[in-house]
Every structure is written in C-alpha cells, then in structure tokens.
Amino acid sequence: MGLGCGNPQAIAALKSGEVVLDLGSGGGFDCFLAAKQVGDQGKVIGVDMTPEMISKARLNAAKGGFTNTEFRLGEIENLPIPNETVNVIISNCVINLSPNKPQVFKEAYRVLNSGGRLAISDIVTTAAELPTEIKNNIEDMYSGCISGASSITELETMLKQSGFIDISIEPKDESKEFIKDWVPGANIDKYIVSAVIKARKQ
Ligand SMILES: C[S@@+](CC[C@H](N)C(=O)[O-])C[C@H]1O[C@@H](n2cnc3c(N)ncnc32)[C@H](O)[C@@H]1O
C-alpha cells in the first residue's frame, strides 16, 4: 500500500463527477483519495496486472465503504477500458516499470475523452547513464523503478508522439530526501528524481 513517489490526485485538480483512471493501482490508496474528490457522481477505475493487488484493492474498497471505485485486472499497455471514456488519468510510480512506455501513452491517449488530462507522479532520470555499481547493486523492490526510468526529454518525445499537448514535466527536488533511502549509501538521488508529469488530449 502506498508504494508511490508522489501524490497524483493532489496534482490532478479533480472535480466532482469526473471519471478517473489509475494506472497500476496496487492496493488502491490513490484511487480512494481520488474517489473522495470526484464524489458519488464520479467514478475511479484502478487497473493493475497483479490479481493479488486487485483482490486487495477490492477488499479495501469494501472495508472503506467506497461505492464509486472499480478495480480491473489488466496491463497498462493494453487497457481494459473503452475508447474516450475517461476524464483524468493518474498514476503513482508505475509507468517507469513498463518496458513499453510508448504503448502506455498510446493507450492513455485512446481512453481519454477529448480535453482529458494526465496527472502522473513518476521517476525520471537526471543523468545520461546510471553508474554500473548502482545498476549491479539494486536487487531490491525499487530496482525496476530505478533501472526502467526514462529522462524528461525521452518522456516528452513519447507523449508528443502519442498526440498529447500542453506537456509539462516538473522534477521535484524534495523527492530526493526519500529516494536516497531506497538504496542506502548508493547516492541514487544523484541519478533519479520524482517528477510531476502533466499533459492533455485536444
Ligand atoms: C510501485 S507499485 C505502485 C502501486 C500504487 N500506485 C501505489 O502508489 O501504491 C506498482 C504497481 O503497478 C503494478 N504494475 C506494474 N507494471 C504494470 C503493468 N505493466 N500493467 C499493470 N500494472 C502494473 C504492480 O502490480 C503494482 O501493483
């Protein structure tokens, strides 16, 4: 629960009645925060590829009495969501894990309504290449987040190629405080940072 690197629902400026999609929803933490903001007229759909996480999120929704959340098993590269049915896509520290990020953004664009938006927290690289000693020293739960991350320029290109406009990618220097604890002593905060990624479909 809460294995993220930011607070996407806080940056998404969600409004009552909106339909929100969370990519890689895990135990549902961000979905529940979003569900409170969109209210009973709105809806939050979480997609995760792990059956255990979907079960956990459904259980958490029942425990919390949430009636406006739904959790679907699926991959963010092949979303189980119809075309143009979502107002806002949020995601917390998941897209960096995907080996096919252009496909993730293509799918995000497909499911968004015209005027829909992305508001994502994710890890980006700040150095061209991770030093080998760090690459070889990250056999823990955060290894995918670190080794799979793209640079701001790469992400901008992928978003543009998918059709997004009004793209902004803002690194959050304060995230270095918790990132450095992911692999103590390895100085990984010199190479990666959490960023707020926003974009819009025309
Ligand atoms: C770092 S956790 C973040 C979970 C949640 N967003 C949070 O902040 O607590 C990553 C989650 O993304 C899911 N995930 C990773 N790659 C995925 C993919 N390609 N498609 C769907 N889910 C994916 C994992 O199963 C896991 O639940």
Q: How does this structure look, described?
A:
The protein has 202 residues and is an alpha/beta fold. The chain has a single domain, classed as Rossmann fold (3-Layer(aba) Sandwich), CATH 3.40.50. Helix content is 31%, strand content 28%. The chain has eight helices and eight strands, in the order H-E-H-E-H-E-E-H-E-H-H-E-H-E-H-E. It has helices at 8-11, 29-38, 51-64, 101-111, 132-135, 143-147, 152-162, 176-179; strands spanning 19-23, 43-48, 69-73, 86-92, 112-125, 150-151, 165-172, 192-200. Strands 1, 2, 3, 4, 5, 6, 7 and 8 form an eight-stranded mixed β-sheet that branches. Helix 4 packs across helix 7 (152-162). The protein is globular, with a radius of gyration of 16 Å. The N and C termini lie far apart (34 Å). The mean pLDDT is 90.
